[in-house]
């Protein structure tokens, strides 16, 4: 394989998702006017669906529109993978200027997970792009009703790294407070940024702190903030979810270990978890201290059954070692996951098989559901 002498750094990709009519386009138009957004490519489904209110200076070519400030808009032609690969090819061959970032806007109630899988699991895209984060837009006027009516809307909030609250200036204080509380229960780690209050700006929405193997300035705490490391038993099955028929099916919880673990044990745990409950494993993020290379943390990132190739960082960014995994799940028995992890981590509970027994018989642990 031939390597370029000066390979470009992977371009960060942000996925913008949210309810129908929640204000994604308004947010996008406002962001695109910011000087910090220069060099951004926005991928949308159809230009007609998203009214870009920039002065369009040039129809560059073949489904790509160049905006007056140097940003680009392009439509999804076929699969998203094809569009991203085409953009990367154009940059590589000098037909487009290098990109600072890419924003993929999903349609209304789309499930963001397949988009994340495309970016994380497609060999052609791994070298060109890295996932920066998921931005979910929630509407203070209709958000609660949408969450009640559409499980997809709940999923969007659950997997987000940033939540943008729109129309809070049009809704009652009670409605805003109720929605905020519900969003925080669904996703304990994502900051909720008020668009009407000017909080949802470029600096707060992008650079979500996901790992960047090219630099040592990795903000692990920011990335893994979904659950405090000492919170071993976070549940969303509390009284506040009564009446919200989808919410209780989604959970965010963390797995922690304060000593090194063998790489094979982590790999086997992840393999077994993905094979038994892959569809319900909406997102998984983590940093692992391995026995083999305790000085260099291993960064894990997965969506459903897809696992991004694990990356070794040069050093522990925050000096704090150990293993911290954050899981966002739907219909996955948390107790099963915890017992599975404990078995592979060498601390099986009473009447629970140890790692060796599990590797011989993966279904030996209770709670497995095909």
From TrEMBL:
Signal sequence region: none
Gene Ontology CC annotations of this record: cytoplasm
Lineage top rank: taxon: Bacteria
Entry keywords, A to Z: Chaperone, Hydrolase, Nucleotide-binding
Record bears the keyword Chaperone: yes
Reaction(s) catalysed by this chain's protein: GTP + H2O = GDP + phosphate + H(+)
SMART domains in the record: CobW_C (SM00833)
GO MF term list: hydrolase activity; nucleotide binding
Pfam families found in the cross-reference section: cobW, CobW_C
Chaperone listed as a keyword: yes
Task of the protein: Zinc chaperone that directly transfers zinc cofactor to target proteins, thereby activating them. Zinc is transferred from the CXCC motif in the GTPase domain to the zinc binding site in target proteins in a process requiring GTP hydrolysis.
Similarity comment text for this entry: Belongs to the SIMIBI class G3E GTPase family. ZNG1 subfamily.
PANTHER family: COBW DOMAIN-CONTAINING PROTEIN (PTHR13748:SF62), COBW-RELATED (PTHR13748)
Protein name: GTP-binding protein
Organism: Nitratireductor arenosus
């Amino acid at each position: 394989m031939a390597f370029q002498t000066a390979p470009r750094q992977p371009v960060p990709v942000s996925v913008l998702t949210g309810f129908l009519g929640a204000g994604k386009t308004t947010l996008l138009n406002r962001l695109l006017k910011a000087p910090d957004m220069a060099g951004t490519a926005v991928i949308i489904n159809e230009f007609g669906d998203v009214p870009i209110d920039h002065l369009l200076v040039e129809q560059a070519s073949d489904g790509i529109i160049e905006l007056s400030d140097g940003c680009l808009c392009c439509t999804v032609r076929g699969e998203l993978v094809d569009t991203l690969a085409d953009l990367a090819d154009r940059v590589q061959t000098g037909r487009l200027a290098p990109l600072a970032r890419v924003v993929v806007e999903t349609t209304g109630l789309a499930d963001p997970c397949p988009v994340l899988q495309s970016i994380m699991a497609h060999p052609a895209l791994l070298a060109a792009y890295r996932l920066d984060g998921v931005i979910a837009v929630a509407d203070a006027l209709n958000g609660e009703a949408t969450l009640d009516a559409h499980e997809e809307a709940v999923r969007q909030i659950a997997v987000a790294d940033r939540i943008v609250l729109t129309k809070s200036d049009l809704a009652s204080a009670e409605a805003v407070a109720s929605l905020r509380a519900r969003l925080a229960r669904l996703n304990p780690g994502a900051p909720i940024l008020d668009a009407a209050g000017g909080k949802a700006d470029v600096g707060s929405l992008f650079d979500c702190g996901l790992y960047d193997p090219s630099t040592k300035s990795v903000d692990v705490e920011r990335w893994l903030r979904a659950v405090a490391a000492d919170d071993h038993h976070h549940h969303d099955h509390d009284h506040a979810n009564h009446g919200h028929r989808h919410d209780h099916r989604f959970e965010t919880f963390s797995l922690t270990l304060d000593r090194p673990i063998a790489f094979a044990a982590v790999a086997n745990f992840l393999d077994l978890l993905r094979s038994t409950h892959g569809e319900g494993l909406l997102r998984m993020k983590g940093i692992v201290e391995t026995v083999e290379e305790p000085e260099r943390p291993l960064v894990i990132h997965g969506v459903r059954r897809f696992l991004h190739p694990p990356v070794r960082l040069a050093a522990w960014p925050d000096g704090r070692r150990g293993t911290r995994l954050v899981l966002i799940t739907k219909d996955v028995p948390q107790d099963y996951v915890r017992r599975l992890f404990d078995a592979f981590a060498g601390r099986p509970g009473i009447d629970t098989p140890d790692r060796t027994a599990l590797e011989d018989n993966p279904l030996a642990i209770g709670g497995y559901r095909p």
